[in-house]
Amino acid sequence: MSRTFKNMQVKVYLVYGVAAALGLCLAWFVFAGMQAVQKNATSLTQQHIPALMLARELVANLSEQERIHYEYYATTNNQMYVSQYVPLQQRLKVQLDTLVNLAGDTDMHHKMAEKLNNISHQSQLLNVNLSNEKIDWDLAREQLSQLSQLRRQLLPQLELLIAEVNIDVDRGYKQTLDQVTATSWSVTVFSGGLLLISLLMGRYAANYIRLSLNNERLAMFPQRNPNPVLSLSAQHDVLYQNPATEKLLRELGLTADPLQLFSIQLVSELAETRQSRPPVRFFQHQIHDRFLRYAVHWLNDVEAFDIHVQDLTQQMQAEARLAYLAYHHALTGMQNRLRFIEDVKSLVKSDLVFSVILIEYTQYSRLQSHYGIDGLTEIVKATSNALTYAISKWEQHHQLRAQIYQITDASFAVIITEANDSHLVTELCQSLQQSTGQSLQTEIGELHVSLQLGVTEYPRCSIKAEDILLHAKIAIDQGLNSVNFFDHQTGTKHHRHLMLNERLVHAIDNQELELYFQPQMAITDRSLAGAETLIRWKLDGQFVSPAEFIPLAEQSGYILQLGDWILATAVQKAAAMQLEVPVRIAVNISARQFMQPDFVKRVVHLLTTYQLKPELLELEITESMVMENEQAGLAVLTALKAEGICLAIDDFGTGYSSLSYLKSFPVDKLKIDQSFIRSMHQEPRDQAIVLSLCQLAHNFGMKVIAEGVEKPEQLMLLTHYGCDAIQGYWFSRPLPETEFLKFCLAAG
Question: Would you say residue 219 has pLDDT above 60?
Fold first, then answer.
């Protein structure tokens, strides 16, 4: 081991030496490069660039000087000449001296100074000529020409100087850039070298640390191990035991002999381990309430056994707890849905007769919103106790067995075995209801709950184990009584509903839906007043009653798509008929359809698309649709009315009515529900209601139409009451489109 450390140390020193040498070389190279960069930068900033700028400024000033001469010639303004030319001439001399000092060319300075003096002298002569009262203009023009020629002679020398300075600037810039590039590359190369060195150093350091940690961990492992570790000789003598072994012996109240931690078959277990391949075996042993698991290793090279002991008590308890929770409800401790399913499958497999009672709260959501989560918890606990007590009394009385389960937080189930007697089951159901019919004592006070029970029996009503719970739920959903039994008729009805739900989704795409039209008659002249659209669904050659599939559509949410199809189709049909038979078509609107944010926009879009006059469309709504959200509903009605669409309140009088709201509704018609019309010729109370509704509507400026008129006696009374129109079999049954068109033409 020492040779390994020594080799690592030599390699580390060597790497450090190489890194230091490379660092010194790089420092010298960078220092020399920066000195050169500084020199070039100083030359550029203090000499070449100022000289270049000064030369260009000198050229510009010479041009300005020439401009002043020509302006002086044109204006003979001596004051202008003195104020502009003289300072400019002085500035040119100073600039020329500074430029020559920066460029360092004395010979060029003399030549340029001589020409600048000639320009100055010639300018003075021009000034003398233009200052006389009698100006010699020919001379002045000749003087201007000489001044221009002198300036042009001076420009080549300045341009030559500018070119030389430009060359010096470019050379200095390139040298600086080359030096910076070389320095950057050297730093990059050195950084890469340092990275490589760092990786090598990290590798050596990691190896060193790993070796050190391994040695320390191996040395301290038995001492710090929280589990007992022992070493036994081949003769089963204890060679070593760690502190954890002594601690466990004290906790168990055993003597100092660590062999007491193992089973009495330890000798045979050691022999078994020694003969196994690989020589490792695991054994488990219980002492008092503690569960111990120990692994035995036979070390052939040292002729000894290593034994590692692990206390599994907490793990075993946790597993037992998990096994309990897997089959019991965490809140009440009752057996849960999983246990219920397994028990049902076992009973079905054994072909034993039994009955199942499913128990649910009548209004669980209301209880939850009223009492909150904590209150609901107390209700469930109290209910489970009451149900358990009722079942116990029933078992004692009949010497039969019934097992209760908590299926969900809101539902329980009872399996009654050894009997399949509807009378006994009914008696138990009554006992269960009575147990919760009185007030329940909870930590939050006395509470009252009501339960719904659904019963199914095996094998008379339910055959498959997976259908037992479903059939009990179907029985509850009948809602006929507080206790409902599942039978084959109920199952058939449920399966039909499932089939209709599945087929209804595809009814539009499969073109199975059709609109019928029921004509409406004006009572005064018995003319055609309009028609109401009615949906018809023909499935596999048979009509399905709207009373059957409309509620299914509402429950599934498909009513929105269905209502949109009815509205669009009705508008399309009405538009096609308006040229030949301009009759108002009424469409029933569902609550979900009416409250869609874009409902008004969609109606207007349909009218525009099919070019239907708004007054030929009538939308029928129920008063409850508007009353659920009076402000929003009134806004929708107002928007529809503004478009010129006719509005009617359907089934008026069957729901909650408020005259204060009704008077604010911008509707045109009230439709009296047929439940008041059906027996009105025999029932005075119905006559009074119909008369009141007619008077009410007329007082509000609305028309009245009565539905379900089938007898002449009904028509006579409605005529007497001032009803405006009727709809029903007395006038016409609902007609398909072609027959309706014939009916309209005949009536017109």
Answer: no
Q: Two tokens at 456?
A: 């199914």
φ and ψ of 287, to 5 deg: -125, 115
Mean pLDDT computed over 179-204: 72
Q: Which domains does the chain have, with CATH numbers?
A: 2-199 (1.20.120.1730), 229-317 (3.30.450), 327-486 (3.30.70.270), 501-747 (3.20.20.450)
Q: Quick one: which H or E segment has residue 535?
A: strand 528-539
Q: What is the pTM of this model?
A: 0.51
Q: Hey, which residues does 707 pair with through a beta bridge?
A: 727
In the predicted structure, residue 646 carries a pLDDT above the cut 50 = yes
Least confident segment among 449-463, 563-577, 584-598, 702-716: 449-463
Distance CA 518, CA 540 (A): 24
Dmax over Cα atoms in the chain, in whole Å?
Answer: 154
Each residue of 525-557: b (16+ CB within 10 Å) or e? Answer: eeebbbbbbbbebebeeeebeeeebbebbbeee
- Evaluate whether 564 touches 527 at the Cβ level (below 8 Å): no
Instruction: Give the C-alpha distances (Å, rounded to integers) separating 91 from 57, 62, 164, 598.
Output: 11, 11, 23, 82
Q: What is the spatial distance between Cα 85 and Cα 256, in angstroms, rounded to a whole number? A: 120
Distance between CA atoms of 647 and 70, rounded to whole angstroms?
Answer: 94
Residue 61 CB burial class (10 angstroms; 0-12, 13-18, ≥19): middle
pLDDT at position 1 over 50: no
Mean predicted lDDT score pLDDT of the chain = 82
Residue in the structure block whose two tokens are 């479903």: 470
- 203-217 CB burial, b ≥16 within 10 A, e <16: ebeeeeeeeeeeeee
Confidence of residue 521 (pLDDT cuts 50, 70, 90): very high
Angle of CA points 488, 493, 497, to nearest 5° = 145
* DSSP code at position 735: B
What pLDDT, on a 0 to 100 scale, did the predictor assign at position 216? 53
- Tokens (6 digits) for 293: 């698991």
Q: Ramachandran region of residue 399, left (φ > 0), alpha (ψ -120 to 50) or beta?
A: left
**Per-residue tokens: 388:** 């358990």
* Stretch 498-519: mean pLDDT: 84
Which CA distances in Å does 424 have to 127, 393, 412?
142, 13, 19
Smallest CA-to-CA distance from 731 within 708, 697, 705, 702 is with 708
- Residues 191 and 204: their CA atoms lie apart, in Å, by 20
CA 616 → CA 522, 590, 619, 681, 738, distances in Å? 16, 20, 10, 33, 19
The residue among 352, 406, 349 whose CA lies nearest residue 379 is 406
Name, in order, each residue with C-beta under 8 angstroms of 506's C-beta and a sequence gap of 6 or more: none
Over residues 368-377, the mean pLDDT reads 79
Tokens 């299914």 locate to 552
Task: Report pLDDT digits (tens) over 133-182.
Answer: 788 888 878 877 887 887 777 777 777 777 776 777 677 677 777 777 87
**pLDDT for 425 beyond 80:** yes
